Every structure is written in structure tokens, then in C-alpha cells.
From TrEMBL:
Residues 190-206 have a biased composition (Pro residues). Residues 373-440 form the Signal transduction histidine kinase dimerisation/phosphoacceptor domain. This is histidine kinase. SMART domains: HisKA (SM00388). Its EC number is 2.7.13.3. Keywords: Kinase, Transferase. CDD domains: HisKA (cd00082). Pfam families: HisKA (PF00512). It catalyses: ATP + protein L-histidine = ADP + protein N-phospho-L-histidine. Residues 141-160 have a biased composition (Low complexity). InterPro entries: HisK_dim/P_dom (IPR003661), HisK_dim/P_sf (IPR036097). GO terms for molecular function: phosphorelay sensor kinase activity.
């Protein structure tokens, strides 16, 4: 499918009848549930915003039981974190079904956890497929499961069922966390026979569904006291007190609550997103229950200059999308926000307010400052490469007679020009490679290579040049395992650059030693330094190719080739140093899993000593 317009097609239909409303609700759930999601606070898709608003409108016209049944179908796939977060703020029956049917990754659960109501966190805590990070985050938020603490079990005589006192139902205030017993309506009981007073039975524990919409889902199930009362009313009162103490002790300090004693102080967690509803004057009248104390009553900054865009849309009753807003208040909500909201109208067409969501702006990642010298070098190389490419192209046109017959003399000159241009382009490539490696803009290809086999193959490749001159390298016994954590192509390029530079600088009859060692996770190649390079003040300094040298590791001489080889070794986590008339190349052995990048090594060019 090249163009996915299914969501736009569904939104284009105006659902009027009851069946159309229910069908469109299911269609939106199916489409939104399978759409890719982004982190909360990121820029939202306008079509998704319209679909979310339409879903909210349809939800108000469908009973909660039917909405929950629409979600509890075998074909429903809730893989969109934003949709799950929206459904979690719905009716408790819908929220329970949405949390049970959601199939989110660990990162998605962590992203929407701060926006979930407390009762939903308790439901989420009962899932068995959560990751360790999600469980730890739920524990930090105090979500361990719904329900009041269970009464203690004591051995008592069984009493007749007709003598059991009726259980007193309780409710939990979602705003303030107060537990309020309801007045029980009981029929007069017949007095018990005077022969033997029956023991008071234990009260039945309250079902979890009775507290589904309460905020105690955020707290752990506390341990009941040892001295449990034998009468039903006393047991319930003690359970209520135990629940209240546990709730006060485990309340997270995210809503301007004071820190507990002996607990390290820190900044309260900053909210990343929250839903809201405001009246026609811009005063917030509804938000999540856990945030009501901080947010309800705040007035949108319509009079500030920085919110002129919001004020204009508010006056004209237009939707707002990604509008920057500054909120004042507790540290958890203070700071910059992006506002997405749509106006609400009553049956007579009057605007009753706005509903929407605040979200934090995405953090702007500062670009790493580039090395100015490396940037200038790359700019100069770009300016030089363009005319050289043009000259090479025209020379090849003349040499290949693509535009007509050309005398052989001109063809020979054109061939020489094309060859010189190719060498210049190769030199430009080496200069750019060194600049990119020094500035960190280039990294070697990951992989592994057998350095021992590469060295043996390169020495054999140099034999036609070193054999007649009775020079070259004398390689000692190669260890069994000389693998390095570097791609084969990069390792071969580095080895050729180093060996060709040293072999080209060696005098006739000068043999150079070569020793491979593998120890402590590092493979070391030690090569003898030719006398011509050892006589220089610093072999790493740039200098012209030595007189009579027909083999070189680069266009700009041995010094530049050694500097480039050192940069390649550093980028691979190794080093290239000079010590006691020897060149030492050290590369790390491959590891199964490299969790962190290797520490940058010091520049071997600086502070080189011991060269005779």
C-alpha cells in the first residue's frame, strides 16, 4: 500500500445512527491501535488528532459496557501508546479492558506511565508480561494493586450464616484519598440463643472491583495488624486506618507533597503530558485525578504577549495545535508546554470551553561542535576536487576519442593528464580521510579481521619490490589467534599503508623485523624502523618522498602516511607509536559485546622519543 488513506476515509463519514456510531468506533480503534506511535511530547499527526477527537465524541454516545466489549474482541490490537493512554482515562470498565488488551513495548509503557491515572497503574501492575524497568517505575509511583488490606486470618469457631453481620461497603474519594464507610441498611436480627454465645465471624474481604475507580491502586497492599477485631465493624475500621497510614507513607512526592523524613531530597518529577478541560474563560476545570490539586483552577495565559497565538485562536473558537504556552505553578508543571486542544460546543452552538492535552516540547539536541580546522580542510578539498574532476573527465573524452578522431600525440597527453588527475584525487581522498578521522566525523567499519594472515599476505605482495633489493620484512612466528576488532577492508588498508611506507623507505639490503603478539585482549604488530626514517627529527612530520623511493604508502610521503595510519588506529581503539627504533601498532581484539566506546588514546605523534 503506497498511500494509506483508511483513516481519512473513516473520518470523512458522518456517523448519525446508533449502528453507524458503533461501527465507526470500532474502525477508529482498529486503525489507531495499529498505527505507529511516537513519544509523548513529539509532534502529532493532524489526522491522528482528528481521529482522537472523533473517538472521544463517539465514546460519549456509546455506553461504557459496549465500549469495553468493542475493545475485548479477538481481532483488536492495541499497539499505539497514545490510544492506550487515552482509553486508560476513560470509564473504569473501558480502562480495565484497554490495559488488559494493550500490547506495548517496555519503552512505550515507560513513556505513558506518568499520564496514567492511579487506578489504572494498579491494574497495570497485575500484568505478568511487564519488563523490569516498568515494574520498578510502578513501584516508584506506588502502584502495587487495588483493594484495601486483607483482614488477618484467625482460628475461630464457625458461626451460622444467619448470624453473620452484614459487611459495610466503603468508597474511596478519588480527590482526597479519604475512605468513607457507607451506612448499612440491615434488618433487625433475632437474638442469639443464650446457651452459648457464638464467636463473631471474620468479615469477607472486599472485592477488587469495588475499588476499581479509586486511587488506592497506587499503593501497596499493607500488612494487617496482629490484634484483629472479632466483630465485623471493628475489623473494617482497623483496615481503613491501616490503609490510610500506608497511603500517606507511600504517597509519591510528585505533586508538591513534602518529602518523607530520612529520605534524600530531589527535584520532583516533571510531567511530560496531561489532559485537561477548561471553561469558556480559559480556566481549567478538569484533569486527571492525581493532578487535580495542581492544575484545576489554573487560568490559561491568554493575556500574555507570548501567548498571542493562543489568545487569537481562543477568541475565534478555533482549534489550536502545538501552540507554545508557559505555565506557572509547582515545579512539576512549570515551564514551557505545547498545547493541542479543540473547542467544545453545546446543543445551541455556544462554546463551552476547550478540551485537549498539554505536552512538553521535544528536547533540542545540541550539535557537536566540529573541528574548525578539519571543516576548513574539507571545504578546500571540495573546491579543489571539482575542477580536477572536470579536467579528468575532459582528458578521458580526448583519450577515448568520444567526440571524434584525435591524433595519437594528443591522446598520449590526455592519458597523462587523466593519470595525474587520478593521483591528485587519490591524494585529496587521503587528506579528507585524515581530517574526518581527526575530527571524529568518520568511524571504521565494525567487524573483525585476522591481522596475522593480512600481514603475511601483504609481505608476499611486496616481495616483487623487496626481493631484488634484498630488503623487506622478516616475520617471526605468528600466534594462533591474531584477530582484531576492525573490518577486513579497513585492516587491509591500514596494514598496506604501514608496510608499504616502511618497505619503500628501507635501503637495499636492509631487512626489517616484524613481530606479532596477542596478549590481554590486544594484538600488537612491532615493525623495525628504516634508518632513513629514524634519521629524521620526527618521522611523523610531513616530508616529500625520499629520493629514489619508488614505493610509498601515500602520495604525500612517509610522514603523512604514518600520521594517517595513526589516526586510523586511534579510531579503531588502538594506537601507533614509536619506541626504540620500532613502530608499534596495537589494535584491540574483537569482543562479543562492546557496551561502551573505547576511551580516546593520546596522540602518538606528540612526545615521541627514543629514536636514534
Amino acid at each position: 500500500m503506497h498511500i494509506d488513506d483508511r483513516l481519512a476515509t473513516v473520518l470523512a463519514v458522518s456517523a448519525t445512527g446508533d449502528n453507524q456510531i458503533r461501527v465507526q468506533f470500532r474502525q477508529l480503534v482498529d486503525l489507531l491501535g495499529t498505527m505507529p506511535t511516537t513519544a509523548l511530547g513529539a509532534a502529532a499527526d493532524p489526522a491522528v488528532d482528528r481521529a482522537m477527537l472523533r473517538l472521544g465524541e463517539l465514546s460519549r454516545r456509546i455506553p461504557p459496557a459496549e465500549r469495553a466489549a468493542a475493545l475485548d474482541r479477538s481481532g483488536v490490537r492495541l499497539r499505539n501508546a497514545r490510544l492506550v493512554a487515552e482509553l486508560a482515562c476513560d470509564h473504569p470498565t473501558v480502562a480495565e479492558t484497554a490495559i488488559r488488551m494493550a500490547r506495548l513495548s517496555e519503552e512505550q509503557w515507560l513513556d505513558i506511565l506518568p499520564t496514567l491515572p492511579p487506578r489504572v497503574r494498579g491494574l497495570l501492575r497485575q500484568r505478568r508480561d511487564l519488563g523490569t524497568a516498568v515494574i520498578q517505575r510502578l513501584d516508584q509511583l506506588g502502584a502495587s494493586g487495588p483493594g484495601l488490606p486483607a483482614p488477618p486470618l484467625t482460628e475461630t469457631a464457625a458461626a451460622p450464616q444467619s448470624e453473620e453481620p452484614p459487611a459495610v461497603p466503603v468508597t474511596v474519594d478519588d480527590q482526597g484519598g479519604k475512605v468513607l464507610p457507607l451506612r448499612a441498611r440491615t434488618e433487625p436480627q433475632s437474638p442469639a440463643p443464650p446457651a452459648a454465645p457464638p464467636a463473631a465471624p471474620l468479615p469477607a474481604p472486599l472485592p477488587a472491583a469495588a475499588t476499581l475507580g479509586s486511587a488506592e491502586a497506587e499503593t501497596a497492599r499493607p500488612t494487617p495488624s496482629e490484634g484483629a477485631a472479632r466483630d465485623g465493624i471493628g475489623a473494617i475500621v482497623r483496615r481503613i486506618e491501616a490503609f490510610r497510614r500506608t497511603r500517606e507513607a507511600t504517597r509519591p512526592a510528585a505533586n508538591d507533597a513534602p518529602f518523607l523524613p530520612l529520605v534524600e531530597e530531589g527535584d520532583p518529577a516533571r510531567l511530560q503530558a496531561f489532559a485537561f478541560a477548561c471553561d469558556s474563560s480559559g480556566r481549567i476545570v478538569w484533569t486527571d485525578a492525581s493532578l487535580a490539586g495542581m492544575i484545576v483552577g489554573l487560568l490559561l495565559p491568554l493575556a500574555e504577549r507570548s501567548s498571542s497565538q493562543l489568545a487569537s485562536a481562543f477568541r475565534r473558537r478555533l482549534p489550536v495545535r502545538a501552540t507554545p504556552v508557559e505555565l506557572d505553578g509547582p515545579a512539576a508543571i512549570a515551564g514551557p508546554w505545547l498545547l493541542d486542544a479543540a473547542p467544545e460546543f453545546d446543543g445551541e452552538g455556544r462554546c463551552t470551553g476547550y478540551t485537549g492535552k498539554f505536552r512538553r516540547p521535544s528536547p533540542v539536541v545540541a550539535a557537536q561542535p566540529a573541528n574548525p580546522e578539519a571543516v576548513r580542510v574539507r571545504q578546500v578539498l571540495h573546491e579543489l576536487r571539482t575542477p580536477v574532476n572536470a579536467i579528468q573527465g575532459f582528458a578521458e573524452l580526448i583519450h577515448q576519442q568520444l567526440v571524434g578522431p584525435v591524433p595519437h600525440g594528443y591522446r598520449a597527453l590526455a592519458a597523462g593528464i587523466a593519470a595525474d588527475a587520478a593521483q591528485m584525487l587519490a591524494g585529496f581522498e587521503e587528506l579528507e580521510r585524515l581530517a574526518r578521522l581527526d575530527s571524529g566525523a568518520m568511524a571504521p567499519e565494525p567487524g573483525e579481521a585476522d591481522l596475522g594472515g593480512l600481514v603475511e599476505a601483504l609481505i608476499a605482495q611486496l616481495a616483487p619490490f623487496t626481493g631484488p633489493r634484498q630488503s623487506g620484512f622478516t616475520l617471526a612466528t605468528t600466534p594462533a589467534d591474531c584477530r582484531v576488532g576492525l573490518g577486513h577492508a579497513d585492516a587491509e588498508r591500514l596494514g598496506w599503508r604501514l608496510l608499504a611506507t616502511l618497505a619503500g623507505a628501507a635501503r637495499p639490503g636492509e631487512r626489517l623485523s616484524a613481530l606479532l603478539q596477542s596478549r590481554d585482549g590486544t594484538v600488537t604488530l612491532t615493525l623495525g624502523l628504516p634508518e632513513a626514517l629514524a634519521a629524521l627529527p620526527d618521522p611523523f612530520e610531513g616530508h616529500a618522498p625520499l629520493s629514489g623511493q619508488s614505493l610509498s604508502g601515500g602520495l604525500f610521503g612517509g610522514g603523512f602516511a604514518l600520521r594517517l595510519a595513526a589516526a586510523e588506529a586511534r579510531s579503531a581503539g588502538g594506537s601507533l607509536t614509536l619506541r626504540d627504533r620500532h613502530v608499534i601498532l596495537a589494535l584491540p581484539a574483537p569482543r562479543a559485546e562492546r557496551l561502551t566506546a573505547p576511551d580516546p588514546l593520546p596522540n602518538p605523534v606528540q612526545g615521541v622519543s627514543g629514536i636514534g
